[in-house]
Amino acid sequence: MAFEMKDLDKEDMWALILGAAALATGGGDSALTYEEFNELVDPVLEQGFKPRLIDPKEIKDNDWIFMNVECGGDIEREYQERYMIEYFPPGAWYKQLDLIYPLNSWSKKENVIATERHLKKLEELIGGKPVAYLPFEIGPLDIYQLVDAAKRSVPLVDADCAGYRAVPELSLTGLNIIDAPITPYTIGTPWGDIIVGVQVLSHQRFEDICRAIANISGGECAPAIALKGEIVKKGTAHNTISFAIEVGKAIIKARESGDDPVEAIIRVTKGYKIFEGKIAGFTTEGKGAFTWGNIWIEGSGDFEGKTLRIWYKNENQISWIDERPYITCPDPFTVIEKESGLGLSNFRPEWWVPGKEVAVIGMKAWDLWRTEKGLRIYNPKRFGFDIEYVPIEERLSKI
Questions:
Q1: pLDDT at 220 over 50
Q2: All residues at 6 or more sequence positions from 241 whose CB lies less than 8 Å from its CB, including other chains
Q3: Beta partners for 197?
Q4: 96 phi and psi, to 5 degrees?
Q5: For residues 23 and 343, what is the distance between their CA atoms, to the nearest angstrom?
Q6: Confidence at 205, pLDDT banded by 50, 70, 90
Q7: What pairing do the DSSP bridges indicate for beta strands 52-54 and 307-313?
Q8: How many CB atoms lie within 10 A of CB 27?
């Protein structure tokens, strides 16, 4: 089947990382350094693999699209020590594990997450192959989605399910808003397990099952679902990978010309500078395969004398100025390093150095999030905060 696709070069791929980090609201993993980026993509390009995007409008309604998600976050110490993945070289944890919880004669010792095998199982379940892969959200992890799709000789859909941002739960998607089915599904784990689901109560139950598996698998697992093209068109934000690349190129251009990368991001995203100042504090806690914590920023410029606090669950969700509610989910907001334009990741505590100068950029939420169903699914109260959602443009107009 012939599709009209867009080939991406190395410059596009680097821009994707920077742009996705600026949009990711502190989640979706963290941006690679340029050296790490080279190590990832150079072998792929040298082997002749072609990273490509396909516009969702190009997909036929009955085409199969696979979405393979990295689900997880930090976990409690006792789970870290039980599964020991972080403490031993790849494969070596099996020896230590066998001393405490003896393995069986038929146990397979996997060194990497069983990505391809659980995707092959999904193909068996649906009786077909995907014509493309779909990113779950916008974040630095998208570079891996792009590379993996290229290695499978299929394109990546130029869209995402979270609405040009990253989100902490698999239930926080346009697929949930449009009531899309998500079975059958398969889950791969770092231990080589392949788990198959043929029925599930709801999108939230799917999230809870996957999160529990991540929690007992060292903090991560890889759920995969198969979607028809018709569903992908209805339940995703379109052309958001291209959008992230555009943002990234604006950051690169600003760096090279000596212009302000924060202003460049605001210009391209049509967003808002909702705060600026210096990092004053950062806390983090791993629990339940999520990363939780708070960020404090002491204001400068127009925000002199004020303090912004951000609460995050993987991604930034709620903010307060001097403890009065400010910008909240589902509107996305990301802390940007002023000098470089780098979107700071909540998964990298070492990046949150006190005194670092930052700006916080916010945007209007994706239209689907602002529907009645969207706001029932994603709002401050789902995280336990008795705060009413007020659209970012309304909140800012009152200040």
A1: yes
A2: 16, 53, 135, 138, 142, 146, 156, 158, 159, 160
A3: 185
A4: -65, -40
A5: 7
A6: very high
A7: unpaired
A8: 30
Q: Number of folded domains in the chain?
A: 2
- Tell whether 183 is covered by a domain: yes
Count other Cβ atoms within 10 Å, centred on residue 112: 11
| Structural domain ending residue among the three candidates 203, 238, 273 | 238
CATH number for position 130: 3.40.1610.10
Range of the domain at 131: 7-238
The encoded tokens of residue 101 equal 């919880």
Residue 388 placed within a domain: yes
Contact yes or no for 140/33 (Cβ under 8 A):
no
pLDDT at 87: 58
Domain assignment present for residue 254? The answer is no
Residues 230 and 279 in one domain: no
Average the pLDDT over 201-213 and give the result.
Answer: 96
- Stated pTM of the model: 0.94
Domain shared by 347 and 218, yes or no: no
Q: Is residue 249 part of a domain?
A: no
CATH number of the domain to which 363 belongs: 2.40.390.10
Measure the CA angle with vertex 360, ends 359 and 364; round to 5°. Answer: 145
Q: Does residue 233 share a domain with residue 305?
A: no
Q: Do 178 and 302 fall into the same domain?
A: no
How many other C-beta atoms can be found within 10 angstroms of the C-beta atom of residue 384?
8
**Each residue of 96-120: pLDDT tens digit?**
778 878 889 888 776 555 568 999 9
